[in-house]
Design brief:
By secondary structure, this protein is an alpha/beta fold. Helices cover 40% and strands 21% of the residues. The structure holds 3-methyl-2-oxobutanoic acid (KIV) and zinc ion.
Length: 572
Amino acid sequence: MKGYEKYIPFVPQPITNRTWPDNTITKAPIWCSVDLRDGNQALIDPMNMDEKLEMFHMLVDEIGVKEVEIGFPSASDTDYEICRELIEGGHIPDDVTIQVLVQARPHLIKKTFEAIQGAKHVIFHFYNSTSTLQREVVFRTDVEGVKQIAMDAADLIYEMAQPVIAGGMDLRYEYSPESFMGTEMDAAAEICAAVLDHLHADEAHKVILNLPTTVENCMPNQFADELEYFLRVLPGRERAIISLHPHNDRGTGVATAEAGLLAGAERVEGCLFGNGERTGNVDMINVALNMYVQGVDPELDFSHMERIIDMYERCTKMKIPERMPYGGDLVFTAFSGSHQDAINKGFNYMEEFQTPKWMVPYLPINPHDLGRAYEPVRINSQSGKGGAAFIMNHKFGFDMPKAMHPEFGAIVQKESDKTGVELKSDVIWQLFEQAYLKVSGPYRLLSNKLNADVEDGVAHSHFYGKLQHKDTIFEVSGDGNGPIDAFFNAISGERMDRFDFLDYKEHAISRGSDSQAVAYIQLHDRLTGYDIFGVGIDHNISMASIKGILCAINRGKAVEHEIEAQMAAQQQ
Ligand code: KIV
Ligand code: ZN
């Protein structure tokens, strides 16, 4: 037998005229967090009291979860104690229901009733396993056997609940046919209907039927088929709130939850960031934010994602993977040049057309909606020219002309090829500074005078400057119809007179309280044949342009020297 041949394939539920594929998710389900139970029980170091309290408060006070399974009070002393602390310490808001889990066993049920004394709203959640595998391997019984266990537990719970309810507690019931996904659907419906009967469920007193994929063993569409079939054959479906409890063994917990909602479920149990046994429970954040980006209010608040992550990582000692949907470190980062470019265009488009809708390619959600710092573009050797320009614009306020992107992109690319590591934005800034702002020679402007006036509607500028080239100091002056023209006329006939003016762009930049102008100048070098950019910054916009020209000329000279050096090397 080959390795894979020993596995028993999932047997799909036959169903005709399925309707779930035509449905869409249009409203939030009831959410129940099982972080303090299913999530906690699967931790290497389960949470202590303070950590559980912190997580509970995050869930209810900040995220807005209204139902929280707080533990398994009959199974562990710490779970019992947290239950008591939550109740006695007044931690539970009036609109929040705590849920307690218990196996369908009499002594545990009794202990659980003790644990919840004094609480206002409680869901009493009991379970037993019903699947073919568990019936055969664990309980060695048949459907009647597991049904009897469930009915006996339901009877005891119902009986014990009456005085508690009479005493003022809002107590509801939840039943889980554990390993529902591996149970024959007719049998699951029969067991669940019996439980509903024994709990005296009716439309006014609905019982939560929680249908777990305890171990995910089928595709989400197959689960949806099971659920649609189950709901068709369940007697008195209106007596139940249908709840999902997906695990993630096949990596499709989120899809199973979504498919289950399409097939008629009304409630989802899950954990933050998919914590839970083995591969985890369904990631509640993922399901909720998937709705959010489809324009559906998930009725949960994740606008402070960094704080949630911080709490989660501290309390669980788990790490959020970098590519975790919505929460991962890298999910708002584009390394690919074409992605960076499209993101850039998306932002510009939204600004230009003031679109109320989110229209940024490659970013399915606005990171600001999650309170995340926007760091969309990171630079590595795979990044293109647009990424560095994007960082210079969005992080440092330098909106380079499009034609300059390839030039600066090549400088950045060279550095990233050299280092082989990601270039952080401060390195991008240093490269920009070195390439454009700290260019100090060979030509230096020692002093200058610039006059600009308009006479009879005609603009006129005069430029005078004292320049230094290596050890030589020389003076130039010239007139023109604008400062740039005057400067070019001033240097006409000098050795630096081999550059043609091509284009320029300017804008204001604020650096601290200081507002200055930046000019980007593009020149053509007739000697080398290259087009080259220079950048100038000054309080005076005309001077910014002149500094930009000088910068481009100096950079052009550097290119000339580079070419000379290369040629010399080739000749050797
Ligand atoms: O995964 C599961 O089946 C459970 C039940 C106890 C609900 O956690
Ligand atoms: Zn579970």
